[in-house]
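Structure ticket #2291
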Amino acid sequence: MRISGVPWRPTWLGMLQLAIVGGLVVMAAIGVVNAVALVTTRSIEFAMPVATTPGLATEIGGVTVQVVVPGPTGWQLVAHSLVSFPTFVVIVTLLALLLTVVHRARRGGPFDTAVIRRLRLLAGVGLVGGVAAQFVEFFARSQLTASIPEDQVPYIWQAQTHVDIDLARIGLWILVGVGFMAFAEVVNRGRALRAELDTVI
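Resolution: structure written out below.
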C-alpha cells in the first residue's frame, strides 16, 4: 500500500524478489529450449575422456574428444538429458523456495517461523538434492560413454573405470546445504532472543 505524497522507494528484499523471479523466468526459458531440442534432435554431442596411447590413463581435466552420435537411441537421449537435468531441477527448486522465503520475510518479518522452516527446507534440498544430482549425472555420463563402441573412437576410456565423479561439485553442494542450515539457525536464534526480550519488556 502506498501512502499519498510519500515517494516509493525500492527495498533490498523487493529487489531480491524481482531478481529471483527473473532467474526463474530465465531457467524456464532454458528448460523449454532444451525440451524442444531433445524432441527434435537428430544427433547428440558430448565430451568423452580419452587416452593419448592405448592403455594410458590421463588425469582429471586431461584430454577429451567431442563425440557426435547421429540417430541416437532412446536410452542415449535419456542419458544425455540426465547429464545435466538433475542439477537444473535442483537449482529451479532452490530458486522457487528462496522466492517463498523472501516473500514470507517481506510479509511476516525475517523471524517468522515459516521463514525458518523454509530455510531448513532449502538446506535439505541443497544438501541431499544437490549431492544426489551429481551421482545421477555421474551414472548418466558413465552409461552414455559406455554406449559408444571402442572402434568408433580410438582409445576411449571405458566408463566403468575411467569416468570420474566431480568431487568439487559435491563439495560445493554440501557447502550450499550447510550454509543454508547455518543461516536458518542464526535466524532461529534471533527469533528466540526477540521472544525473550518481549517477555522482559
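Closing remark: The first helix runs from residue 12 to 40.
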